[in-house]
Automatic annotation (TrEMBL):
Protein name, entry field: Carbonic anhydrase, family 3
Species, as recorded: Fimbriiglobus ruber
Origin superkingdom: Bacteria
Gene3D superfamilies per the UniProt record, alphabetical: Hexapeptide repeat proteins
InterPro entries: Transf_Hexapept/Carb_Anhydrase (IPR050484), Trimer_LpxA-like_sf (IPR011004)
Entries under PANTHER family matching the protein: DYNACTIN SUBUNIT P25 (PTHR13061), GAMMA CARBONIC ANHYDRASE-LIKE 1, MITOCHONDRIAL-RELATED (PTHR13061:SF29)
Length: 69
């Protein structure tokens, strides 16, 4: 798992199930089973919502914007 903002150098070897953070990106620790499960669930939810938005089933994810904004 690569953290937001991390910069992984070219040719870096990242072991499976590792968390990479920083600039340059470094392995800081193993990823827990809970983190993996949560990431899989969040990704599935995101894909589901994206498909619904693309189909027009959910036209405004946060409600209609105010007209005076």
């Amino acid at each position: 798992m690569i953290a937001a903002g991390a910069v992984v150098p070219p040719g870096a070897v990242i072991p499976p199930r590792s968390l990479v953070m920083g600039v340059p990106g470094r392995v800081v620790r193993p990823v827990t089973e809970d983190e993996i499960a949560r990431t899989v669930a969040i990704s599935a939810r995101y894909r589901d919502l994206a498909a619904k938005y693309a189909a027009g089933a959910i036209p405004w994810p946060l409600g209609r914007p105010d007209s005076d904004r």
